[in-house]
Amino acid sequence: MHIIVAADKNWAIGRNNELLVRISNDMKNFRRLTEGNVVVMGRKTLESFPRGKPLPNRVNIVLTRQQNYDGKGAVVVHSEEELREELKKYTEEIFIIGGESIYRMMLPYCEDAYVTRLDYGYEADTWMPDLDKEEGWELAETGEEQTYFDLIYYFTVYKNTACKEF
Fold this sequence. Notes:
The protein is of the alpha/beta class.
């Protein structure tokens, strides 16, 4: 299992249920990695997508406590146990795509994290755990410096040396 996220220098990931910034190359990288695979998210993440619809060309799984939630074509589960059972059905790669509570819950079970690190501190209300301080996580790769207008960012990969079985 993998995490994929864009995080600023304080590990902030969003504000008012929106991304901090939309970078075309980051979106292309996200699409390249997740298409044809399984994406797992919380309800608010699904609702942040255009028209609240699941991402095309992927199996979308939404974890929510709302019992009668309409996932508009996404598979809806209501607990960690239900999610575990659902994920057993797939052989494709599994990507955890947010939000904060889903990242925190699934962090111990992910073998790696694809993190677009933004070299800026945004005003935010949602954060990813700081992988530089999380036990068992280490920075494995840092791509070349990229720029989006005056924003500097890097594609990085973190590895979890203490990955647990889900």
